[in-house]
Amino acid sequence: MLSELLLGRQMEQFSFALEFLGEAVTFVSNDGRIRYANTACESLYGYSRSELEGRSIDILVPPEGAGNGGMRPDERWEGDAIGVRKDGETFFSHLIATQVKADGEVATGRLVVPRDVTLRRRLEDQLVQARRMEAVGRLAGGIAHDFNNLLTPILSYAELAANSLPEGSAPHGYLQEIRKAAKRASHVTRQLLTFSRTQIVETR
To answer: How far apart are CA 162 and CA 82, in angstroms?
Structure first.
């Protein structure tokens, strides 16, 4: 009974202050039930306050979607999780959960502050992907340049050797096939260089 009175008194104080914050805030009691949700929390998740109060926090933050094994009963916990709105839409959220204690001694629950970080996560993922593609492009460009340097003498010496042999002879035909294959390989290096957004330097 005493804990219920303490919780009620605390919630009156919290609710007055937290309504003026721009951040979504919920108060979750020790049994995992939502005892309070401010207006910003209603907007974030799409539930009305009456729909949230008394329900498990799991409807907003499923245990399987919470990072590091979920929100632990520590004095303070911070981490990323998957949030779920009323319409079933999921989003990336960053949670900060802090214990609330009555008279500084008995923990009555936790204040949970969720933030929608979906846009930030998407931008981070795009940046990581762009860096990966840049690295692949540099690798492809380096390989293409090295390969082109190997093809240049092959083409040159095959042409010189072919010119020193009579046309129609078997060795002359073999060298012509070597030149054709080397030119096809050179075309592949150009494609790699195009992918890496570099330009080939013509050897003269």
So the answer is: 68
Burial of 7 (0-12, 13-18, 19+ CB in 10 A): buried
Residue type, 75: E
Q: Which two tokens stand for residue 74?
A: 């520590």
Mean pLDDT by 10 residues, the chain (204 residues): 48 65 85 89 92 92 63 71 92 88 72 90 88 83 82 85 84 86 84 66 48
Candidates 91, 133, 134, 130; CA nearest to 114 is 91
Kindly report the backbone phi and psi dihedral angles of residue 126, in degrees, each rounded to the nearest multiple of 5, phi listed first.
-65, -40
Question: What angle in degrees, to the nearest 10, is found between the helix axes of 118-163 and 170-195?
Answer: 160
- What burial letters (b/e) apply to 8-28, b meaning 16+ CB within 10 Å? eebbeebbeebeeeeebbbbb
